[in-house]
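Reviewer 2 asked us to include a model.

Predict the structure of this chain.
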Amino acid sequence: MNKIQMKTPLVEMDGDEMTRILWKWIKEKLILPFVDLKTEYYDLGLPERERTKDKITLDASNRAKELGVAVKCATITPNKQRVEEYNLSEMWKSPNGTIRAVLDGTVFRAPILLDSIRPIVRSWKKPITIARHAYGDVYRATEYRVPGAGKAELVFTGENCESFR
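Predicted model (structure tokens):
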């Protein structure tokens, strides 16, 4: 069988933990037998993001913007526990948020359906949905540690300088 040829390589953004194993399996079993796969590899695993001070995420994002096609595996957005577990120098931002900012993207809130994805079990009639839903674009949220006890306030000031609390 002739493999499908690729003109443009895709940006391959590897991830953390089990996703690395799953992505390797998907490539070996489902893609490489049928596609002459051309990729530009970027390791977005947490150790590599730490080593490069997260520059790898920006590099991968910018290259994805240039080429117009990428595959990204699941990555860890570190919390305090992960900072300690991986001995990180800081709590790196979400790679998803960084990529989305570079690509001027958004979090999709409805599934993208494709008739071309067919189940292996021919009698299967239910839709196959592959998606990860996020809530409210929390990836662009920032954290702020207050120096001590006090009061937090939210103030809106309109164009006419009138403020509402």
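Residues 50 and 89 are 7 Å apart (CA to CA). DSSP finds five helices and seven strands in the chain. We have added this to the supplementary material.
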